Amino acid sequence: AAKHTGRNHFRLFDEGLRKRLEMRRECERGLSQALAEGALKVWFQPIFGCGGRSATSLEALVRWHHPVHGWVSPPDLIAAAAMAGLTESLLRFILEQVCTMLCALRSRGFHTLSVAMNVSPREMAQIPVDEIILGRLRALGLPTTVLEIEITEETALDIEAVQGKLLALSRAGIRVALDDFGNGYSSLASLRQLRADRVKIDRSLVTGLTEAEDKRELVQAVLGLGRALDLEVVAEGIETADDLATLQAMGCPFMQGFHLGRPQPADDILDSLETLSDRPDPVRLRGA
Ligand code: C2E
Ligand code: MG
Ligand code: MG
Ligand code: MG
């Protein structure tokens, strides 16, 4: 493509690229320090059952406020970690925050509230994600059934490279969700290949579906697919009461979005558990 853009154009592109690379490099440098100093955080966003009243799981989302560049988007952060050779350190850090949340939930009696962790295909391909995760859960005495892995298909080839590790996790009892379904890459074949338990409808199909017939038809189709293949369907990106009502009327089993609950620091989530989820079962509490 560069050949056709001509000289001037190329310089412009070059300048933009230079700035982005510069920012990338600063983030790479800052990242190991941020990890060491605890400047990196993991926030959690609730996912609700059909009624929209009770949370069934929490999605872990990494957060980094860079002293100069402000909030770094998670995909940029993951990319910077890869460039800096910190992929495994970052994954271990996030896993640790996830496990801490799982332990806190259990000590409060919320035994059935699970936590979902995003793992990119690149991370999955590069490091022994399955061994790391199963090892940590075992060491902490946490059951595999309370953890879920969300994976996004980014290119057609991804799935083959990560299939073995995902299957190992799945066989051990960890649930697998195919994220961002319907965003352009996700395929029906991968749902089967990955033995996914869940499919998350990309928010580009969900946000504003009340006003968009084409979106509603696509969401309806994914809901049908879920019933046919015995997959749990989650709609993400619910921003309004209208869209929530539309999805409820369509029979969508799981819901996530700013209208229902924003990503929040772990402490804030733990403080609002009583309103997020059904009260803990007193019998279970006694047994814990
Ligand atoms: P995702 O897994 O699809 O996560 C959902 C994203 O949508 C999150 O953005 C969340 O804050 C946002 N979101 C949730 N509800 C709404 C809504 O109603 N409206 C809108 N507009 N947005 C909503 P976030 O945290 O910026 O993460 C972006 C992506 O980065 C994630 O997409 C995920 O693919 C990746 N990511 C986030 N955290 C991690 C992580 O710890 N590890 C890895 N590998 N990837 C991560
Ligand atoms: Mg996700
Ligand atoms: Mg998603
Ligand atoms: Mg996404």
From TrEMBL:
Q: Which organism is it from?
A: Methylorubrum zatmanii
The EAL domain extends over 24-277
Protein's UniProt name: Bifunctional diguanylate cyclase/phosphodiesterase
